[in-house]
Design a protein that fits this description.
The complex is a heterodimer of chains A (179) and B (602). Chain A has 179 residues and is of the alpha/beta class. Chain A is built from seven helices and seven strands; from the N terminus they run βααβββαβααββαα. Chain A has a single domain, classed as Rossmann fold (3-Layer(aba) Sandwich), CATH 3.40.50. In chain A, strands 2-1-3-5-7 form a five-stranded parallel sheet, sandwiched between helices. Chain A has a two-stranded antiparallel sheet with strand order 4-6. A six-stranded mixed sheet of chain B has the order 5-11-10-14-12-13. Chain B has a four-stranded mixed sheet with strand order 2-1-3-4, with helices on one face. Chain B has a four-stranded parallel sheet with strand order 8-7-6-9, with helices on both faces. Classes of the chains: A alpha/beta (179), B alpha/beta (602). At the A-B interface, α3, α5 and β6 of A face α26 of B.
Chain lengths: 179, 602
Amino acid sequence: MTDKIRVATASLCGCFGCHMSLLDIDERIIDLVQLVEFDRSPINDIKKVGDCDIGIIEGGVANAENVEVLLEFRKHCKVLVALGACAINGGIPAMRNSFELRECLEEAYIDGIGVANPQIPNDVEIPLLLNKVHPIHEVVKVDHFLPGCPPSGDTIWTFLTELIEGKPISFPYEQIHYD
Amino acid sequence: MTHDEIIKTIIASSGTSPDVQRQQLLQYLCQIQHDLSHIPGHAITQLADLMQMPEAEIHGVIDFYSFLHKDARGEYDILLSDSITDHMLGSRTLLQQLCNRLGVEPGVPRSDGRVTVDTTSCTGLCDQGPAMLVNGTAVSRLSDSRIEQICALIEAGTGVSQWPAEFFEIEDNILRRDLLLSDETTAASPDGSALRALIASSSDALLDVIEQSGLRGRGGAGFRTGMKWRFCKQAESDSHYVVCNADEGEPGTFKDRVLLNSYADSVFEGMTLCAGIIGAQRGYLYLRGEYRYLLEPLQAVLQQRRDSGLLGQGILGKNGFDFDIEIHLGAGAYICGEESSLIESLEGKRGIPRKRPPFPVTLGYLNKPTVVNNVETFMAAAKIAALGADWYCAAGTPESSGTKVLSISGDCERPGIYEYPFGVTIKQVLEDCGATNTQAVQIAGAAGTTLPVADADRCIAFEDVSTAGSIMVFNNERNLLDMVQNFAHFFVHESCGFCTPCRVGGSLLKDLVEKLVNGHATQYDVAEMKQIGALMQGTSFCGLGTTAANPVLDLLNRFPQLVEEQLAHSGYEPAFDLDASLQEARDITGRDDAGAHIGSHT
């Protein structure tokens, strides 16, 4: 148990699609847990990250909590992986970057259709939004980038098994090309 | 005239077929912009009707060119030149002064519609800057007092034509003359002499002379002119075209402005000679919008040449030697200096580069064989035809015959135009222009090469350091990072956006250069810049993208100590200030609790 590789995962500003794709490795997850022990992850609902071998991040950096989680991951993980389009370049959430933050908030909480009791939330429990959405490599050093929206279960499986076995990472064409 | 009348007049001034009209689209838009200070929506509708083309396509053209606007600019539309040499002469302070004094933000028209103040890429007045354009006309040698005068004139509503004439004085500043610019040469090859030589012998014989002279393109690439003309001549077609590239957009280059101002006859003669050799009946001079003030004088020269029988039907009485030249204006797009973009722009379209091959010599303007040469190349060709290949080969090196006209600016006592035989050392050039305490020389503009002064023994020649003419001198007081940052911004602004390596790579480089300037870059970022730069060089679609990383890579490779001093010593630094990026949200929500801040992350 103790010499198992420890893996943590988190979804920052993403859609959880990359985590769903991770689950698409299907029954191979049984093989995977022979090799790895999951630390913090939405899969097991552990909330705090401990020292790990591999950290996998889905989603971009859009708010103060995303920054905090990402910095914690970098501190505790020997290898950090950007998983999917949002982690790599901000993805869909970064479409708000062509607007001012105020415009986005006003559209959502003041001027939007059907908004009742219009006000921009300011509860201290709610993480503040950054003025722009950033890819994770603009906040911490990233060791591997795994593209895709989302990367397929097979791609993730290939990546994880090769990384764990210490092999050079390479993919069959159909697993990494999206044209 | 009302808007409608102006638009109708413009439209009525050209042929009637939609195809022909479409080729004039950019010219119509330039004219409407000039007359109305923007292109109103109903003008777009009218033009789309007339030319039977979708409005979206016209919007596309307007959006492409910096000098075209869909929203009204101020009655006085001021553009300060944003070239690094203008910065070095204090243009940033003057911009601030101008904005403060007039009560405007850069790029935003004043609420009364009186004035807009903005910046533009190099206006080609680096030897007499800081410079600006007001309603398309250049004003040189800006100073505190000149800015004060300008503000007063604007507030008083004085028309630009009534402003003091000395504001608009543009000097040639020719400080060294050689083969092309010497008075003896001008006397020995009066107007028409090249064309008389052509008529006296044959087009084949004259083409041989151009080839023997070893003349190579003066726009920077150095392609052999004789070979280009021969390829074009050999390309079978019902029509051929001659195009003169006067889109002198490379920052720090201003020699074509001087040649067009004082030697336009020779330039047009070279174009006519080329037409006679390749069998073209029509030529275009593509004049950058920044040089609009040269348009009328150039048209006068053309008319004079028509009156003297040097242009038009039966040139110099020779039956069948028919050729005329039309001037097309650009509208603030550096990419249009690239010959295939220039051709697209001449056809009235967005200046997106074409795939090459086919090259313009076989499929150019309107997909017909076309010679595109630089202003200086045509001028040299005219002189060579009149005075012979030997006269020209006497100067220069075996690989680079003849002379090169250089535009020198930056930290030197005597900036201006210097003509040298090829092979001159950079050291000699620096001595002659009075450059002392030099740190580095930027050769061939933003897309060129940055040489430390230790390399000043190198020569200006195609086989060593090649340039279309731009030489910018930086002394030891200057921070070269300012230059690299200026160029990085320039390329982001000027990328046409067509290919990803240039569009995205340029933006990434700009951000990383800023990170370096702000002292937050690490070795990791240096490696990143090198990788992005190499990718841009290897994979961009045209020359703009393949050269856009040069200033960054030259800085990293040739000035490692400068970079080292600037690096942060941690292993990694975020690309932006984490806590500052919450400021907007703090302002909106009024929060200032601990959770509304991101603490030190090191």
